[in-house]
Specification:
By secondary structure, the chain is an alpha+beta fold. It has a domain of about 80 residues: RNA-binding S4 domain (Structural Genomics Hypothetical 15.5 Kd Protein In mrcA-pckA Intergenic Region, Chain A, Roll). It is about 25% helix and about 20% strand. The protein has four helices and seven strands; from the N terminus they run E-H-H-E-E-E-E-E-H-E-H. Helix 1 crosses helix 2. It comes from Arachnia propionica. Keywords: DNA-binding, RNA-binding. GO terms for molecular function: DNA binding; ribosomal large subunit binding; single-stranded RNA binding. It holds the Pfam family S4.
């Protein structure tokens, strides 16, 4: 048996084990539809759902891993049953450089044009 947080980290769903643990304790990860603790045992056939901003990803455990492995091996350890990623999450966001201050009137007009607003009320 493998801990849920260790499995999430070893199949590369989370960058670090501590991030996986925080996600499980924060209620963002469910095992077979139920909220569980990070130390809960995972077995093949279990369904793991991971909430991300804007959508929920669904995985089926195929193989137990207790150590972090290469990406190609990690992808074989689960089946991805996630719905397609929503299109609004793929749209690039306009960002300002840190410390650039408030946008000028010219910047605001450029942002409005980018967002599809023509400027009329």
């Amino acid at each position: 048996m493998t801990r849920l947080d260790v499995w999430l980290w070893s199949v590369r769903l989370f960058k670090t084990r501590s991030l996986a643990t925080k996600a499980v304790t924060g209620g963002h990860v469910r095992l077979n539809g139920d909220p569980v603790k990070p130390a809960h045992a995972v077995k093949p056939g279990d369904r793991v759902s991971v909430k991300e901003p804007g959508w929920t990803r669904e995985f089926e455990v195929v193989e137990l891993l207790s150590k972090r492995v290469g990406a190609s091996i990690a992808q074989q350890a689960y089946k991805d049953h996630s719905p397609e990623r929503p299109s609004y999450l793929s749209v690039p966001m306009a960002r300002r450089d840190r410390g650039a201050g408030r946008p000028t009137k010219k910047d605001r007009r450029a942002i409005d044009k980018l967002m599809g607003h023509d400027g009329s009320p």
